[in-house]
Amino acid sequence: MIYGEKNVDAPIRWGMVGGGLGSQIGYIHRSAALRDFNFELVAGAFDIDPERGRSFGEKLHVDPDRCYTDYKAMFAAETKRPDGIQAVSIATPNFTHYEIAMAALEAGLHVYCEKPLCFTTEQAQKLEQLVKKTGKIMFISYGYAGHQMIEQARKMVEHGDLGNIRIINMQFAHGGNNVAVEKKAASQAWRVDPAKAGPAFVMGDVGTHMVYLAEAICPQLGIKRLMCTKQSFVEGRALEDNAMTVMEYDNGAIGYLWSSGVNAGSQFGERLRIIGEKASIAWDAEYPNFLSYEVQGQAPRKLGRGNDYLYAEAKKDDRIGGGHPEGLFEAWSNLYTRFAIAIDKTERGETVDFWYPDIHAGVLGVQWVEKCVESAANDAAWVEFK
Fold this sequence. Notes:
Elements lengths: L11 E7 L5 H11 L4 E7 L4 H10 L11 H8 L8 E5 L5 H10 L3 E4 L7 H14 L3 E3 L7 H11 L6 E9 L12 H4 L4 H4 L4 H16 L5 E9 L10 E8 L4 E7 L9 E7 L2 E6 L5 E6 L5 E4 L7 H4 L12 H20 L11 H19 L5 E2 L2
Parallel strand pairs: 1-2, 1-3, 3-4, 4-5, 6-9
Antiparallel strand pairs: 6-10, 7-8, 7-14, 8-9, 10-11, 11-12, 12-13
């Protein structure tokens, strides 16, 4: 159980690129990183508008001299300081991730990056090579993986509670883009602009979350091939707002993933069900404290977060004990705790002996989107994944 004791000898000096005024995702990053005193926010390039970014940084109690005009200025200045940043989080639009992440790694920083990592598999592999070369830790922001019941699901699969996995049924299908909201909200406009969002909208924005959750829970499965059909239902929208992907795994299992922003009436719609030969488990992100466990021939069970019957690895992520609800902020905090411990182990020359959404997860997400786009462009043909 997590009680907030220190996980590192001294807080890791941390900076942010993006996540400025009005950014919900920036607030989540800061809340998660600062919660357990593993990080200290000491610098930032918070906004494309330097003055607005400086003003915002000061409101976060960041020294005005360390509120920079852009990430290049920050990396250049911080690397010269004896107390310069050790790690950086990238919370900017998709089209900037690749160049900022490359610059951060080249500056000797550990990186926590929003997804998608970049636009092409080639770019992703270059980042992967640089991570290996520098030996730095790179986290990809798949925040839902930090929920305690995801760890429980992973352990149930690992221990054979479900038997051999046959089917993974996933959806992340909300209704928030059911109309052209991008015409009224600048914060949404870039998400449907191919030049800024990349080759996909909902597949990259929400679909990749499910691809990673499936890998986190069932790491023994690899995607062998896939087929995808996609649509743009809102008139004038250049990128897809709905897609269905079928995946065949290397053990013969099959996966179904519905990615959508036009599921009218659905506020969130993130769910997965993993079906084995003996039993199934199901998780709903709107009710993240529970995991359904259904064994063939037995009464259905609902496992609750924070209880003694969970696997020990899942209980380690608990923050408040059973019965009390935990949510997204706690999940992200769990991941930032892992980020801090991974940095500390790496700096000490020790092996990182736990899983987290690493550079491989980033490459996987980019490759999955690329293959989905290829399949859809060829009338939903099967496309080899490897």
